[in-house]
Specification:
Layout lengths: L2 H33 L2 H17 L6 H12 L7 H34 L7 H19 L2 H9 L3 H24 L6 H23 L14 H26 L1 H9 L1 H10 L1 H27 L2 H37 L8 H27 L5 H52 L3 H5 L4 H20 L5 H24 L2 H10 L5 H8 L3
Helix pairs in contact: 1-7, 1-12, 2-5, 2-11, 3-4, 3-6, 3-9, 4-5, 4-6, 4-9, 5-8, 6-8, 7-8, 9-15, 10-11, 10-15, 12-13, 12-14, 13-14, 13-17, 13-18, 14-15, 17-18
């Protein structure tokens, strides 16, 4: 199967997964708010972030295994490939045991540090301990997911996760009805862990992605050192990302309380979905870029990276404007007025979305090239400085101040360093990357933002739902046209037309300007 076809399958299945995840989020939040108090919902949201921090005990092993498997997957029977799978699997199992003990022993201390209200302390400790058990169990078979990633069979992973999103919603609903309350999340997490483990093993066997009998090699200290050397750099980057992207909830919990945590969790759900939606493009291109690096296909890498980054910027520009226009009325409608959100937060989050998409593109290239170098410290420094500044700014400026600090840190650290890496590795000039590649996005925002402002002002007197439709639909249609017309790089327009459904060829060709 060609790279282009495999990428299209991966990205299509990725958007199917995102759609299923969106349905889960849209249904689970009102469902949870119906059965939980606002503080219990905040506790539920807080547990998600804590689970992310527990996963950092991975120490960068997971992305390290995925990347190094790409180096040796073309020769699966020489022993090195099997040795890497075995070594990585043993390391992951050991890390799962560590997660289990850390989660169980540290839960009372975490309750004190996060200032959990006394009447919720028992629930918090119980949730954290059981989430640690479930997370540790998932580490046992995680290596098979990395094998699928290295062989670019991410489409099947996406199909499994999409199905799980709908299954988890059913499990969550049944658990709420049975009176499980805030503990309902444990039932859905257990379901995900079991189904994921079984299906990943089945797919690896079905597609013959594992070495043949007698060609597995043996776990080796050399492979362990290689995993650790690359993994420790990825760990510092992951820790910095976690501090920058996920510590807002922890900062808000200490500074503004669980009620504000609930508001942040709901108000940023669509933001996170949009970020995933756009980042999917580069996430699924990353193993292809890594393969190009391994095989020395430099010219193809340069062209594909440029076009992918430009497309990501254009998508983020449209998404940022629509988010700033629609998110506040959507949150009000979605939660029946229980959660109060503000337009200034949406505008700031839109700006941050654009920056994060660019950071993701350039950081993905860093990981694909394995030339991490100083980036390991840049990301960690960004995360640490963010936590300090956000802790100081939160009590004074509220949620908007925390988002503003996030923007400044992402722009001043990871974005600038990512630009420098792309310049040195691919040989582009700084002007090409920071100006020319972003010109289509700038043009789209310039043409779309006035329409969004006019629609928001004209339909403001309407009630929430009519205002959301009246302002959002025409603005979305105009934004979609601008994206197709100006946001798709010339090098990708031919591929778009080539793989488009026949019934859309004539219309699509006219819109994007290709015969």
């Amino acid at each position: 199967m060609s790279r282009a076809r495999r990428f299209i399958r991966n990205i299509t299945s990725g958007y199917l997964l995102l759609f299923a995840s969106m349905l889960y989020v849209l249904a689970s939040v009102p469902l949870a708010l119906k059965f939980l108090t606002k503080e219990e919902f905040g506790l539920w949201a807080l547990m998600t972030q804590i689970t992310g921090y527990l996963a950092l005990i991975d120490l960068g092993t997971s992305p390290s295994i995925s990347r190094l498997l790409i180096d040796c997957k073309d020769h699966p029977d020489d022993g090195d490939y099997g040795s890497l799978i075995q070594t990585g699997g043993l390391v992951l199992i050991c890390q799962g045991v560590i997660i289990l003990f850390v989660g169980i022993l540290a839960s009372p201390l975490a309750s004190h540090l996060l200032q959990i209200p006394s009447h919720l302390e028992t629930s918090f400790v119980y949730l954290m301990r059981w989430q640690s058990v479930i997370l540790a169990a998932g580490f046992v078979t995680r290596v098979f997911g990395h094998v699928l990633f290295a062989h670019q069979r991410i489409d099947y992973v996406n199909y499994v996760q999409a199905t799980l999103s709908l299954l988890n919603l059913i499990v969550l609903w049944v658990a709420f009805l049975s009176g499980a309350g805030v503990y309902s999340v444990l039932w859905s997490s257990t379901t995900s862990c079991l189904v994921t483990a079984i299906t990943y093993v089945v797919f690896c066997v079905k597609f013959r992605l594992l070495p043949k009998k007698g060609r597995w090699g043996v776990p080796s200290s050399g492979r362990f050192r290689e995993l650790f050397q690359y993994g420790k750099d990825v760990f510092l980057i992951s820790l910095g990302r976690q501090l920058t992207m996920a510590s807002q909830t922890l900062v808000i919990s200490r500074s503004l309380g669980l009620g504000a945590v609930a508001a942040w969790s709901v108000g940023t759900r669509i933001f996170n979905l949009l970020l995933q939606l756009i980042s999917r493009i580069f996430d699924f291109a990353e193993p292809i870029f890594a393969e190009m690096v391994v095989r020395g296909e430099r010219d193809s890498l340069r062209e594909r990276f440029r076009s992918t980054t430009t497309l990501g910027a254009s998508l983020s520009g449209v998404a940022a404007v629509l988010f700033a226009l629609c998110n506040t009325p959507f949150v009000s409608l979605w939660t029946s007025g229980k959660i109060i959100w503000s337009v200034p937060c949406d505008v700031l989050l839109g700006i941050w979305l654009i920056i994060l998409v660019q950071v993701g593109c350039h950081m993905g290239l860093v990981l694909a090239s394995k030339r991490i170098k100083w980036m390991r410290y840049v990301y960690f420094a960004e995360g640490a400085i963010f936590v300090v500044l956000a802790t100081l700014a939160g009590p004074r400026g509220g949620l908007s101040a925390i988002v503003a600090v996030s923007i400044l840190c992402s722009l001043g650290f990871s974005y600038l360093r990512g630009l420098r890496h792309t310049v040195s590795f691919l040989g582009f000039s700084l002007r090409e990357i920071a100006v020319d590649w972003l010109t289509p996005m700038t043009k789209i925002i310039f043409l779309l933002a006035p329409v969004a402002l006019l629609a928001g002002w004209a339909f403001r007197p309407l009630t929430t739902f009519p205002r959301l439709l009246a302002a959002g639909l025409p603005t979305s249609a105009w934004g979609s046209f601008l994206l197709l017309r100006y946001g798709i790089p010339k090098s990708l327009k031919g591929d778009v037309v080539k793989h488009a459904p026949k019934m859309l060829l004539r219309w699509l060709g006219r819109v994007i300007g290709v015969p």
